[in-house]
């Protein structure tokens, strides 16, 4: 992952990070861009993070508008997290994917959501084990 230096020169509160899919994963060789927007309360308030550009990854937790359903971007945010650790979490999320597909509610969400993904009340899916 690399920071687009031009984006930082244009605005210290808005960064573009270029990243590539990890080797041996469904996203190997694919290039993506993440947009980070920092408020004046950063690092106590999480940055707004979303995919941007021409290649939004097809993933069960990534909407076609670039919004990412990942708990560390909202309720599980910690000021100890850095841009690098957020990027590593997103790479890890992509790397664990077994099938490229959009979230089941993608069409509805994209039509009705706020432009700021932090304004979304995310419902994180929990794997439930049923004893039989």
UniProtKB/TrEMBL annotation:
UBC core domain segment(s): 1-132
Segments spanning the bilayer are: none
Recorded E.C. number(s)?
2.3.2.23, 2.3.2.25
Which SUPFAM superfamilies does the entry link to?
A: UBC-like
Pfam annotation, one family? UQ_con
Which reaction is the catalytic activity of this chain? Answer: S-ubiquitinyl-[E1 ubiquitin-activating enzyme]-L-cysteine + [E2 ubiquitin-conjugating enzyme]-L-cysteine = [E1 ubiquitin-activating enzyme]-L-cysteine + S-ubiquitinyl-[E2 ubiquitin-conjugating enzyme]-L-cysteine; S-ubiquitinyl-[E1 ubiquitin-activating enzyme]-L-cysteine + [acceptor protein]-N-terminal-amino acid = [E1 ubiquitin-activating enzyme]-L-cysteine + N-terminal-ubiquitinyl-[acceptor protein]
Keyword match Translocase: no
Per its UniProt entry, which superkingdom is the organism in?
A: Eukaryota
- Tell me the InterPro entries matching this sequence: Ub_conjugating_enzyme, UBC, UBQ-conjugating_enzyme/RWD
Please give the SMART domains that the UniProt record associates with this protein.
UBCc (SM00212)
PANTHER family given in the database record: UBIQUITIN-CONJUGATING ENZYME E2
Return the protein name: N-terminal E2 ubiquitin-conjugating enzyme
Q: Which organism is it from?
A: Lepidothrix coronata (blue-crowned manakin)
What broad taxonomic lineage does this protein's source fall under? Eukaryota, Metazoa, Chordata, Craniata, Vertebrata
User: Gene encoding it?
Assistant: UBE2W
